[in-house]
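Researcher: Next entry in the queue.
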Amino acid sequence: MLGGLPVLAAGCAFEGQVAVQLLGGAPVTVKQSAKLELDPHRVQGTTTHAGQVVKVNCSVTGTFDVREATGSAVLVQTYVVHLRTRPLRRGTPYQLDCAGPLLVQLPTDASDVLATATSAAESELPISVQAPITAIPLASGRRLRAEPGTQFAILGSFALSPGGYTVELAFSLPDTRAFREKVLYTALIACGRSKYLQPIRPLVTTMKQVPALTIQPTATETTVTVPHLFGGIRSYGEARRTLSCAR
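Model: Structure for this entry, 247 residues:
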C-alpha cells in the first residue's frame, strides 16, 4: 500500500472500517478495532553547518470500499506531508519522527481508556495511553485543545516496529448512547528547545477542522466507515509545513 511513495516518505496505512462493539451493562465498555500498517521513520542528529535544513516526508494511506456505476471498488488514498525546518544554526539537535502518537477525541465521561496492538504473528503489545488530556503542545507555543464536552486520549505508537497490526481501543461510558469521536495522526517534533506534536492528517490547527465519526455502540459488532482522506476519488494528495525550532 505504501510501495508507490517516494523513498523518504513513511508513516502508516489503515483500512477504512472500524469495528465497534458494546460489552456489559452500566457502565458499558466500548471496544473498537481497526487494521493498521505501520512504517516508522525518523531523522535525528545535530546540524553540522549553519543554514542546514532538516527534512522528512510523512504519509497516511487509507483503503476504502466505494460504490461506482460498475459496482464495488477499492479506493486507496495517500496523503503526504513534507516537513521542513527553517535554516538552522550549527549544532542544533533535532528529531523528526513520523510515528508520533495517535490523538483520539472522546466524550469527557469516557474512562478506563486502554489500547493494544496485535501483530500478524498474534503477539499482543500494550500501547501507552495518556488520558484525560485537555490540550497538547503545537509549534510556537500554541496548543491544540479538546472541544467542549470532550477529552483527548493520546495513544503512543513509537514503540511499535514496522508491520501490520490490529489496534484495539477500549473505554467505559456511564450509559449506552451515540457519541462523536475524532482521530488525528501526528508527527513528534523535537528541534532545539522545541518539542511538540505536528498534526499530519488532517493538517489542522483546531479540532473543529477534524471530521467526526458518529459511533452508535451495539451488543453485536458493527462497522463504521472512516472519513476519506480528501474529497472525490483522487488517490494522492500532499502538503508542506515549515517547522518551528526554538533556539
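Model: The two ends are 38 Å apart (CA to CA).
Researcher: Noted, moving on.
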